[in-house]
Amino acid sequence: MHVEPLVWLISLGLVGALLFVDVAVVGRRPHVPTTSECLRYLAFYVGLALAFGVVVWAVWGGQYAGEFYAGWITEYSLSVDNLFVFLLIMSRFAVPRQYQQSALLVGIILALVFRGIFIAAGAAVIAAFSWVFYLFGAFLVWTAWKVGREGDTDGEDEFHPPLLLRLVQKWFPSTTEYHGVRLTVVENGRRLVTPMLIVLVALGATDLLFAFDSIPAIFGLTAQPYLVLMANLFALMGLRQLYFLLGGLLTRLVYLNIGLAVLLGFIGVKLVLHALHENEVPFINGGEPVTGAPDISILVSLAAIVVILTVTTVASLARSRRDERAASAGIEG
Length: 333
Prior knowledge:
Blueprint: H1 5-28, H2 35-60, H3 62-92, H4 97-128, H5 132-149, H6 163-171, E1 184-187, E2 190-193, H7 195-219, H8 225-236, H9 239-246, H10 249-252, H11 256-277, H12 298-332
Antiparallel strand pairs: 1-2
């Protein structure tokens, strides 16, 4: 897949323009978005992603369009998990609801920056060393095992502050009250950080961890840096509106960890199988490609991703309704 530099510039320019408008609007008027506002923005961003996939199909073919859609859906599902952690952070630091939108926007921009860095690094490593797919695959399988061990998210989740956040809280004196969206204030002649700055540090540290997990996952579906970048960009667009639109529904996705574990494990196995097909490691099959290894097509991958996420969502909502009915029956009893 050959992408002209002009196409890169136009694509990044359009995304940058969208972000600029979003920042300008939100920065000028922090507020709690209405349901209709969230639906309009979300439909717009999803429509853009679907239209982009059609353009990829028309210009580069159905194979690459399938890779984009598979990557976009995967990154979107991982971003929803990211939203769940954002929800825990907002609750942990009692962020006023009218300021949550501004904090989420900064968190999403940080996610874009971190993922851009990891995409560039990942593409360079893959181009130089084909055996890195073994590492990516093993890492995803290990991540899947780790996520799966966490079980279902049944409301007992707690936010565990990352090291960077603990250092900021320890070294920098802070106020106990929010001062709008300001990051620092002067009180009694001292410069203090506000809780909003601490929240942004927490969001940034979380974004860094999620970028480290998500980039190997999408490289397991497509090796095209352009598609990897655009899938990530479209997956992060509209997350702010999705956060407010779903609201308490995020906490009802009780099997989200299990679903993501299965998804990451599937992609990890796919990566290892792909590495076997391009094997150059001397101690595996004498450094020759393993032609007998199964090859998972992009259509099979896309179908598996959709099925895994659909089953996860349906099972989670069914479990939540069952628990609600049981709790209601217990109260009546």
